[in-house]
Amino acid sequence: MPVYALFPLLVRTLARWPVMALLAGSYVLIALTGTYRIAFMSFAGMGGKAHWLVPTFFPLLHLPLLVFGMALARLFLSGRRLSPRLHSAMLGVGVGLLVLIFAGAWLLPSWMRSATVLVPIFALVIFGGAGAGSSVKLLTLPIFLLLGEASYSMYILHIPLRHCWETLIAGVPELSLAPWLHFLLYFGFVVLVSVVVFRQVETPMRKWIAGRGRDSVPRAAVAMAG
Questions:
Q1: Which residues contact 127 (CB under 8 A, 6 or more apart)?
Q2: Which of 73, 75, 119 is CA-nearest to residue 98?
Q3: Looking at the predicted structure, is the pLDDT value of residue 183 above 90?
Q4: Which of 4, 21, 64, 112 has the maximum number of C-beta atoms within 10 A of its C-beta?
């Protein structure tokens, strides 16, 4: 997403702001952009309901979400230390709420799956899980470490894979899945593809980039010494 190009500038600029103010301010903007996204884009003359991809993926509308994530990371790294049990409780509450919202999607109104609702719940999962390792030994198992490594692939791919999955399911007209089963199968599909991408694409690229970085250090050192 092009908005990530702003990350270095944001790090310097936002460091001057109190972390709680960043969390509150970015969350308000997340709620506003999520609720009035199409109206904002229509006002700017950049699409409307007929161009749903524009208001859905326009980079600047996702900037508050990036700021919220950066503020959450700052809070974890430099804020008051919480006990592993409290982190575990936050993780459990967050995961439980997500399961209820998505497994019961057919019973709940659509706004329950909006960014306004989901962002604080995912924040509970991320913030809670980040400090729950010593309390929840399950999180230190190799399979969960692998899922953590593959999480960026999941983040990048889950929307394109959703369209692939829906196309695949639509291709079998006689197939009728319960919403909870549909979600579980889609979730497994995303995890499987993301792990493959992590191992076969992301990991080799990391090694290649790291290798280039290591190769450049001796040459720079020799040049400075000469």
A1: 72, 75, 76, 87, 90
A2: 119
A3: no
A4: 64
